[in-house]
Amino acid sequence: MAQQQGFLKPGERSKKAFGVAFEGNNDPYVHNKKQRTQPPTSHQRRPRDADRLPVAKYRRQLLYLVETHATVVVLGETGSGKTTQIPQFLDEAGWTEGGRMVACTQPRRAAAVTVASRVAEEAGCELGEAVGYAVRFESVMQQGMTRIKFLTDGVLLREMMEDPLLARYSVVMVDEAHERSLATDMLLGLLKKVQRRRPDLRLIVASATLQAEELRAFFDPGRDSSVVKTVQPGPGAPVQRTPAIISIEGRTHPVEVHFLQQPCSNYVVASVETAVDIHKADLPGDILVFLTGQQEVEDAVRMLDREAERLSASSGYGSKLLPLPLYAGLTGTAQAVAFSPAPRGYRKCVVATNIAETSLTLEGVVYVVDSCFVKQRAYNPLLGLEALCVAPVSKASATQRAGRAGRVRPGKAFRLCTAQDFAKLPDTTVPEMQRAELQGMVLQLKALGIDNIMRFEWLAPPPAEAMVRALEALAALGVLDQDARLTQDVGLPLASLSLDPSLGKALLTAFRQSVPCSQEMLTIVAMLTAAPHGPWVAPPGVRKALDEAKSRFAVVEGDLVSLLNVWRAWQEHGCSAQWCAKQLLNQHSLRKAEEVRKQLARACARLGLPEPESCDGDMDHLRKGIVAGLFMNAAVFESTDHNPLAPESDPGTHVYRLIRPVGGADATGVRARSGGRDGMGRAAPGATTGALDAGRLRLRIHSGSVLARCRPEWVVFQTVQQSDSGWYEMQGVTAVQPDMLLEVAPHFFQKSR
DNA sequence: GAGCACTGC
């Protein structure tokens, strides 16, 4: 205990060295105040243990509430068993009689698949019989036989296009609603609508955090007199439209949370020191450190490696520290290392990005070190550009991270901020709906028959500017007409392709233009969809080799056309794994691209598009197809900035300027028309002019682009991200001719003068 | 001169 005390209050010892000191926590935040002694998690999966899950006690109450309420909000902590048990309760209680199914949605594919197989095992059936799942590319179920179906929320949205009232389901359980993904929020809004037309449908919204009241209020028809408050579901009690809330405790262990006594100036250094302190205290259990990005993770691992070496040299400690990185850019095998148990005599210290907060679970973690920062996407609807920003986490997010310490036994979490600063953090993360680009979402809602998107009932309404921006962009693409309805020629076909609208437009155009290049565009679009940041692996220390590998496939037309070479070379080498490794290509990305490509080709055939054709090296027509989708992201070279302090050999920074509707003449020869217009030359709904001076925005080509060292006069790009240095950097760049812009998007551009 | 995390019949 003395040792522990010393560890909890290391201030005297480590304050000087690292400026990191923690407050002992007199009133520790405990995740589950009811401490439980239960068998380890691996036993939970065994069928007979299901009865011992916390949710088992609530079975009768839960079934009663589902019977009598249209919507039940289930507040359930990690380990409560809600995901695996509730669908089985419903099945046993007769909710799957008459051929109807119970659906349980998950935000992630992996979760849908693994939960389904666990439930199938518990139910004693083969996966795909009574219990099945559906995720993109993979549906393991049998019509008429499967009663419980786990699916991603994205798949359920797709299903609604064929079956808007979800007639095949008696109950829909939306799990992990607290994550507030774009698809989850869309689904909740749509389900509320469906409920009005299907009073017999039951909704269960499962959430891990304190948003129960918000959810109840959302699904409560309240005083709305147009809604029938009760209906008879056959025999039994009348159905309450006002949602019920039920709370189920979890089966995790308490986690003591500690804060810094003083703010730290460098959380990477502080996290390393904290991990080392934990290790020195020599209590058993793995350490999990949360940082924001790949670079930070690699820096921390390097520092920890040095510390580990020093410590093992000075000896005296029972085990050696084994620092391991974990982030999405690692190859599968490198990720697997972080998951495998530490060898005898070692203690793992996994340094991870946000990937470990929700997506992946590490066994054996007892200590969590939380930088309390996260890197997240932020969208600026006024400029139509996004940035990756390092931002403080929300309290809910920090709670989730801390909870990772309590899965095997009581744990500790060390937050690298003071308790005072922590109190100032937002309670919950801003829903994706309010910080994302919305074109795809709007297209999908339109396809589901939601005409008045502005009046749609949202759990969290998207910013009006983002909505207007999305409507304008869809109008410019020809997806929406002047009444903001889906167009026959573009909108309807695009809605059935699971693609970003701009990529979908490029693909449609590739099929339809005078010299088709649909084979090539299928490949490019599939590659971009499967691996938005490129098919390359990104472990550290291979930067130079990676540049060389990229340049082997690079062409002057730019990044998108270069992807074509990667694909062709991969095919020519028999899709070999060794070849991928040698070229620093991520095999997984290429295989996924292959699946996307097949699926897209099938979808195009269903739409009645012609057989895919190749343009046989006609790069101009290929680029025209690309421009048809990306013309709104056009930029022109302006000037080269020279840093007066840089050596004379320094090429300087090539600065580009966006060509967007801003009005005014332009010396470059082409300018955007003021006011977006639809494909028929009519003013697009909500088109704005001059309000934002995107034309003044200074862009440069991202250094990872194959065109980074070239200086093409005109380009279109796929995305822009703001760098740490404040530059807006274009990614997925294609060099174009100004004539192409005028020819492909005459409604958007005009010759100046 | 450089990559948070997901998803799509």
Automatic annotation (TrEMBL):
<keyword id="KW-0347">Helicase</keyword>
<feature type="region of interest" description="Disordered">
    <location>
        <begin position="667"/>
        <end position="689"/>
    </location>
</feature>
<dbReference type="Pfam" id="PF21010">
    <property type="entry name" value="HA2_C"/>
</dbReference>
<keyword id="KW-0067">ATP-binding</keyword>
<dbReference type="InterPro" id="IPR014001">
    <property type="entry name" value="Helicase_ATP-bd"/>
</dbReference>
<dbReference type="InterPro" id="IPR001650">
    <property type="entry name" value="Helicase_C-like"/>
</dbReference>
<keyword id="KW-0547">Nucleotide-binding</keyword>
<dbReference type="Pfam" id="PF00270">
    <property type="entry name" value="DEAD"/>
</dbReference>
<dbReference type="InterPro" id="IPR007502">
    <property type="entry name" value="Helicase-assoc_dom"/>
</dbReference>
<feature type="region of interest" description="Disordered">
    <location>
        <begin position="1"/>
        <end position="52"/>
    </location>
</feature>
<feature type="domain" description="Helicase C-terminal">
    <location>
        <begin position="271"/>
        <end position="449"/>
    </location>
</feature>
<keyword id="KW-0378">Hydrolase</keyword>
<dbReference type="InterPro" id="IPR011709">
    <property type="entry name" value="DEAD-box_helicase_OB_fold"/>
</dbReference>
<dbReference type="InterPro" id="IPR002464">
    <property type="entry name" value="DNA/RNA_helicase_DEAH_CS"/>
</dbReference>
<protein>
    <submittedName>
        <fullName>DEAH</fullName>
    </submittedName>
</protein>
<dbReference type="Pfam" id="PF07717">
    <property type="entry name" value="OB_NTP_bind"/>
</dbReference>
<dbReference type="InterPro" id="IPR011545">
    <property type="entry name" value="DEAD/DEAH_box_helicase_dom"/>
</dbReference>
<feature type="domain" description="Helicase ATP-binding">
    <location>
        <begin position="63"/>
        <end position="228"/>
    </location>
</feature>
<dbReference type="Pfam" id="PF00271">
    <property type="entry name" value="Helicase_C"/>
</dbReference>
<dbReference type="InterPro" id="IPR027417">
    <property type="entry name" value="P-loop_NTPase"/>
</dbReference>
